[in-house]
Specification:
The protein has a single domain, classed as 2-Layer Sandwich (TATA-Binding Protein). Helices cover 32% and strands 34% of the residues. It starts with a strand and ends with a strand. By secondary structure, the protein is of the alpha+beta class. It is globular and about 30 Å long.
Length: 95
């Protein structure tokens, strides 16, 4: 199963993660607290870990096109919520 990960530097990692989860929960299964989250899209899964300085995001899907979609949905929504910070995403294959 292909997967990819990114670390996004932000002092508001927990806030943005929770905002993403509340938004996605209107349409897909989501579990979260202040430090971790799991979002189950029909086309892939996303797990997140927040700390004081960054948000770690890991996306996985059955194939590469679905992985690209999962990654794009998460990144686009994060960028909308954190537009003042202009977050930088450097995606790399998950280990």
């Amino acid at each position: 199963m292909p997967s990819t990960t990114a670390n996004v530097s932000t002092p508001k990692a927990s806030r943005y993660m929770q905002q993403l989860c509340k938004h996605f929960a209107h349409k897909v299964p989501v579990t979260f607290d202040t430090e971790t989250a799991s979002v189950n899209f029909p086309f892939g899964d996303c797990r997140m870990w927040a700390d004081e300085t960054s948000l770690r995001i890991e996306c996985s899907s059955a194939d590469n096109p679905a992985l690209q979609r999962t990654r794009a949905v998460v990144q686009e929504h994060f960028e909308r919520f954190a537009w003042r910070e202009e977050p930088a995403f450097n995606w790399s294959p998950a280990c």
